Amino acid sequence: MKIGYKLAAEAYGPKDLVAQAVRAEQAGFDFVEISDHYHPWVDEQGHSPFAWTVLGAIAARTTTLGLATGVTCPTVRYHPAIIAQAAATLAVLSDGRFTLGVGSGERLNEHIVGFGFPESVEVRHEMLVEALEIIRMLWDGGYRSYQGKHFELASARVWDLPDRPPLIAVAAGGPRAARLAAEHGDGLFTTEPDPSLAEAYRSHGGSGPHYAEMPLSWAKDEQTAVTAAHKAARWSTGGWPVMAELPNPPSFDAASQTVTEDDMREAMTCGSDPSSYVSSAQTFVDAGADHLVMTNWGPDPEGFLEFYSSELDGKLRALSPS
Hints:
Mean pLDDT: 97
Order of helices and strands: EHEHEHEHHEEEHEHEHHHHEHEH
Largest sheet: 8 strands, parallel, barrel
Number of strands: 11
Strand content: 15-25%
Low-confidence stretches: none
Structural class: alpha/beta
CATH superfamily: Luciferase-like domain
CATH architecture: Alpha-Beta Barrel
Shape: globular
Number of helices: 13
């Protein structure tokens, strides 16, 4: 079991994120994962720095900590050739510690360049497959061209390549995306403890690591944790169809007006009882996860990192499927 820490780039500025990553390495985490957004989910979060700059700074400040995007959409806001270059550079700077997490994206971040965001999930998946073909082609070295249904590449070359290309973990919220991850990726990325996703991934030949985000809100007392979760993460209760489609933070604020604090208690572990965190983690392990990402929406990241180091690290690493 590998344990990661989610850098909530929607909730903290770039310097705070780098500091959290350094502290996460000291606390015993195996890797950090960062969201690659242009906007936060709701205005109250107040941040959204450029993930790739933050990751470069983290690479320079750490020595053993793995790095990952969670996740990048390489199809609209970015051309896949740009992500091929960015990921290769980061892999070189980090001495091979980088994993490229990719997905088909959210309208929230992708519509901003004015090219539109496809209405059809099938089209988004087609674009992601082509993007992965381009990225891998460029990582093979040399001048490359590509003519696809959605993308073109004209005599492009990534000059600085790592000794081994980064692993690509593909996000899946349903069986079709899990199959795509198996056929075109090196690993699976999920955000819920749904065994069917891992089953679909494995049944179509997927054999790589399974990254899974476990939501939580840490504070010394439960009510403080619940209140913080409601403020920062109420947008997450609408489910992926909603999250992928809304165009901006005010839309997410409007869509989550009826979410209550009790809803947040049900959606994630809140407070400081280690047994509650272990119980929640077990559901993700039972769903196939072997790379568990702690996604903390609590108000005190330093307090959570200390809590993880003293109360959770050994307990979580000891977990195995029931």
